[in-house]
C-alpha cells in the first residue's frame, strides 16, 4: 500500500504569476508528484500551493520549490497583509493515507534538515514536528515576523532547528511542520438568513459564542477577571465555523474548517449541523467539499451512514462513496466526481492500464494474448480475490437475511474482513505482472563493461527476489480468507453455504498457483537465506491450505 502525504507550502508572492509558475514548474518536475492546487492572493501577497505523492518525491519537490523561491522572491521588498517571515513562509506535511503522523513528523524533520543544508536558510520546526512545546504554535515561531527576524536570530531562544543561525535578508526563514489534514466543508441550509446561519455555526464550532447576561443576543457580555469575554463552547472539537449567504446559490451556508478530521470527521460535522439546525427550525438540504478530501474520509462516512441503517459495511469502495455522497447531499450544488474530489483517485494516471480495472472478458483476453504477462501469478491472485469476494458476499447476504436483524453487525464485521482481503489480493494482481516485467527489464540491461555486468546482475537478483515475495504475499493474504469462508459455512445464510465453499476452493487454487510461481522464481536464488525461509514457509502454507479447504468442504457435506 502506498504512503501518500500532502505538502502545502505558502510562498510570499501572490501577484506575479510568472514567479509562481516557475516555482510550481519545479514541483511538477519531480516524477510521482501531483500538483493539486495553486491559490494566489493579491492582498496577502501570498500563494498557497498544494501537491501530493509518496514521501520521497514530495520531499524532493518541496526542496526544489524552496530553492526556486529563494532565487526569485526578495523579502526586503515584500509587503502583504498576511503574517510572514520568509520567501517560503511555511511548508507543512500532512498524512493522507497509509502513513501515521509519527512517520510524517520524521519526514518533516528530514525535509527541514535538507532545506537548512542545501538552501542555507534558518529552518524552524512547528506543529507536530516541533522539538519543543513552545514551538508547536506557528504564531509563536513566526513572532516578530520578517522585520524582527534579524534580532531574533541573535538570541538563544531564536536559534533555528536547522540551517545557519544567520539573517539572510533576501530569503528570511522558513517554518516546516507536520499537521493534520484540514477540510474546508460547507453545509447548505433552506434559509437566506445569515443571522440564523451564524447562530447554527456558533452552536457547533469549538470556540462557540460569547456568553451574555439575560438576552443571548443583546445582553451584557460576561467577562472573566482579566476582562476577556467568557465563551460558551460549541459541540464540535477542532472545528471553525461561520454562517454566510451565497448569492450564487440563493441560500445560506455554514462554512466550516475541520482542522483535524480524526477528531471531527466530515460526517459527524454534517449530522451535528443537521441536529442544531433542526432545533432552530432550519433544514439542511445538502453540502459541498471545497478542495480535495482523503479517500478514508469518504469511506468512513459511507460506513457511518450504513451503520445508522443497520446495514453491512463490507461493500465496495464505490458503494461506500455513493452512500456518503447521497447521505450528505454532496452533489446538490455540483456533480461530485470522485476522480477529481478524492486525493488518491486524482493522483491516478488516467492512461495507466491496470489489470484490476479490466472487465472479466478483458482480463481473460489479456491473459490469453501472446504476451507472457499477465500469467499464472496474476491469475492466482485474481482467483484468491474472487474466493475472498464469495465469502464476503455470503456475509453481506447474511447481514440482510430476514429474521436475522439482530445479527447484522456480526456479519458486517465478517464482510469488512473479507473485503480487506480481496482488496489486498486485487492489488497483487497488478503487482505480480509488474514484478515479472521488472525481471525482463533487468535482463535487458547492458552488459558490456565489468561495471555494467555487476549492475545487471544486482538488478536481476533484486527483481527476482521481489518476484518471489509477491506470490508469497498472495499465499499469506489468501490464506486469511479461510477464516471468513469457514465462518460463513458454519454460521452464514444456509442458502449460500455452497458459495462460501466455492470461495474456499478459489482460495486454495490461488494459494497453490502462487506456490508454483514462488518455486519457479526461486530456482536460481535458492542459496539466499531469505529465499530459503520463504520456501519453507510457503510449503507449510500450502499444506495448511489443503487442510483448510478439506475442512470447509467437509462442513458443507455435513450441512
Question: Can you put this structure into words, describing what you see?
Answer:
The chain is α+β, with helices and mostly antiparallel strands and 559 residues long. The chain folds into three domains: 4-178, Formiminotransferase-cyclodeaminase, Chain B, domain 1 (2-Layer Sandwich); 183-346, Formiminotransferase, C-terminal subdomain (Alpha-Beta Plaits); 355-558, Up-down Bundle (Four Helix Bundle (Hemerythrin (Met), subunit A)), CATH 1.20.120. Helices cover 51% and strands 14% of the residues. It is built from 17 helices and 13 strands. It has helices spanning 17-28, 55-72, 101-118, 138-141, 149-153, 194-204, 266-279, 295-308, 317-328, 338-341, 343-346, 360-368, 376-399, 408-443, 450-491, 497-522, 529-558, and strands spanning 4-7, 10-11, 33-41, 46-53, 88-97, 123-127, 174-178, 183-189, 209-210, 231-232, 239-246, 251-258, 284-290. The strands form three sheets. Strands 1, 2, 3, 4, 5, 6 and 7 form a seven-stranded mixed β-sheet that branches. Strand 11 (239-246) and strand 12 form a beta hairpin. The longest helix is centred in the last third of the chain and has 42 residues, at 450-491.
Amino acid at each position: 500500500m502506498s504512503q501518500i502525504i500532502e505538502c502545502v507550502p505558502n510562498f510570499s508572492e501572490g501577484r506575479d504569476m510568472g514567479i509562481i509558475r516557475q516555482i510550481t514548474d519545479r514541483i511538477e518536475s519531480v516524477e510521482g508528484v501531483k500538483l493539486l492546487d495553486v491559490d494566489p492572493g493579491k492582498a496577502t501577497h501570498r500563494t498557497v500551493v498544494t501537491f501530493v505523492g509518496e514521501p520521497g518525491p514530495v520531499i524532493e519537490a518541496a526542496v526544489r520549490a524552496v530553492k526556486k523561491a529563494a532565487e526569485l522572491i526578495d523579502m526586503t521588498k515584500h509587503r502583504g497583509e498576511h503574517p510572514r517571515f520568509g520567501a517560503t513562509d511555511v511548508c507543512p506535511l500532512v498524512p493522507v493515507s497509509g502513513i501515521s503522523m509519527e512517520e510524517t513528523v520524521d519526514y518533516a524533520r528530514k525535509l527541514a534538515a535538507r532545506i537548512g543544508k542545501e538552501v542555507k536558510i534558518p529552518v524552524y520546526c512547528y506543529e507536530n514536528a516541533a522539538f519543543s512545546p513552545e514551538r508547536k504554535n506557528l504564531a509563536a515561531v513566526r513572532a516578530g515576523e520578517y522585520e524582527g527576524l534579524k534580532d531574533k536570530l541573535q538570541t538563544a531562544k531564536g536559534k533555528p532547528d536547522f540551517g545557519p543561525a544567520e539573517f539572510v535578508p533576501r530569503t528570511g526563514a522558513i517554518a516546516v511542520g507536520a499537521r493534520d489534514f484540514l477540510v474546508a466543508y460547507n453545509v447548505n441550509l433552506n434559509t437566506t438568513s445569515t443571522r440564523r446561519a451564524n447562530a447554527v455555526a456558533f452552536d457547533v464550532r469549538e470556540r462557540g459564542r460569547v456568553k451574555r447576561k439575560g438576552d443571548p443576543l443583546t445582553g451584557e457580555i460576561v467577562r472573566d477577571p482579566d476582562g476577556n469575554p467568557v465563551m460558551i463552547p460549541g459541540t464540535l472539537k477542532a472545528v471553525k465555523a461561520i454562517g454566510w449567504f451565497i448569492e450564487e446559490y440563493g441560500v445560506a451556508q455554514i462554512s466550516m474548517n475541520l482542522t483535524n478530521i480524526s477528531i471531527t470527521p466530515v460526517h459527524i460535522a454534517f449530522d451535528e449541523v443537521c441536529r442544531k439546525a433542526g432545533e432552530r427550525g432550519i433544514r439542511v438540504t445538502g453540502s459541498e467539499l471545497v478542495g480535495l478530501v482523503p479517500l478514508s474520509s469518504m469511506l468512513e462516512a459511507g460506513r457511518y451512514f450504513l451503520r445508522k441503517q443497520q446495514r453491512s459495511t463490507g461493500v465496495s469502495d464505490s458503494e461506500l462513496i455513493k452512500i456518503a455522497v447521497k447521505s450528505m447531499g454532496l452533489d446538490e450544488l455540483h456533480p461530485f466526481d470522485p476522480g477529481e474530489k478524492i486525493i488518491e483517485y486524482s493522483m491516478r494516471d488516467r492512461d495507466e492500464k491496470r489489470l484490476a480495472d479490466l472487465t472479466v472478458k478483458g482480463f481473460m483476453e489479456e491473459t490469453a494474448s501472446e504476451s507472457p504477462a499477465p500469467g499464472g501469478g496474476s491469475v492466482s491472485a485474481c482467483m484468491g480475490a474472487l474466493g475472498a469476494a464469495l465469502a464476503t458476499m455470503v456475509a453481506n447476504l447474511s447481514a440482510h437475511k430476514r429474521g436475522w436483524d439482530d445479527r447484522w453487525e456480526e456479519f458486517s464485521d465478517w464482510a469488512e474482513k473479507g473485503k480487506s482481503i480481496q482488496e489486498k489480493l486485487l492489488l497483487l494482481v497488478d503487482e505480480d505482472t509488474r514484478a515479472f516485467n521488472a525481471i525482463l527489464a533487468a535482463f535487458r540491461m547492458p552488459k558490456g563493461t565489468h561495471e555494467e555486468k555487476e549492475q545487471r546482475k544486482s538488478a536481476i537478483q533484486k527483481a527476482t527476489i521481489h518476484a518471489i515475495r509477491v506470490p508469497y504475499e498472495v499465499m499469506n493474504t489468501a490464506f486469511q480468507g479461510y477464516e471468513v469462508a469457514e465462518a460463513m459455512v458454519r454460521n452464514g445464510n444456509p442458502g449460500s453455504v455452497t458459495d462460501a465453499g466455492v470461495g474456499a476452493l478459489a482460495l486454495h487454487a490461488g494459494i497453490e498457483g502462487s506456490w508454483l510461481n514462488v518455486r519457479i522464481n526461486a530456482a536460481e536464488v535458492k542459496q539466499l537465506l531469505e529465499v530459503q525461509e520463504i520456501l519453507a514457509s510457503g510449503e507449510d502454507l500450502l499444506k495448511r491450505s489443503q487442510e483448510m479447504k478439506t475442512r470447509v468442504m467437509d462442513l458443507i457435506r455435513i450441512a
